[in-house]
Write a structure and sequence with these properties.
158 residues, single chain, mainly alpha
Length: 158
């Protein structure tokens, strides 16, 4: 598949998932008071909003990225994983009433069993290197294509 067609499809998927996150956060907002740790439920709500906006903005710029097919796939899947894994870890923590060892500001004193705390770590810790990799690739993809650079130089020289 041509890289530009792939990026257009991926951009559309990012837009769809961003809207899906807004639907999720709209419904999840009703559940916030019912979580074992409502503060974590509120964190899920705000993280979903942030991730939704990030995915919408990224989806709009995705077709403009100057990336090959493989780099585009890596950036796409890493960005999705990091966004959804972070939200999932907070959902798990809010349901368990756990998370103090990983997210102490949001969880407060809520500490789960060693298994629960370990599960949260297993879900959320890989999100950091994946988002950094995705953002580095996106940043790299925002460079000007060589043919556009030479065209701008020609206009400046006139």
């Amino acid at each position: 598949m041509d890289a530009s067609v792939l990026r257009a499809r991926q951009g559309q998927r990012l837009l769809q998932i961003g809207i899906a996150l807004f639907i999720f956060l709209s419904l999840e907002g009703f559940a916030v008071p019912y979580f074992r740790v409502p503060r974590l439920g509120l964190s899920v709500h705000t993280l979903s909003a942030l991730s939704g906006v990030l995915l919408l903005a990224t989806g709009l710029l995705w077709p403009k990225l100057n990336l090959g097919a493989m780099a585009s796939r890596i950036a796409f899947w890493f960005l999705l994983y990091s966004s959804l894994a972070t939200i999932a870890a907070y959902v798990v923590a809010a349901i368990f009433g756990a998370g103090n060892t990983t997210m102490p500001l949001a969880a407060g004193a809520a500490r789960g069993t060693p298994f629960q705390e370990a599960l949260i770590k297993v879900i959320v810790y890989p999100a950091a290197p994946t988002v950094l990799t995705a953002l580095a690739l996106i940043f790299w993809g925002l460079r000007m294509p060589p043919h556009e650079l030479s065209g701008q130089r020609a206009k400046r020289d006139e």
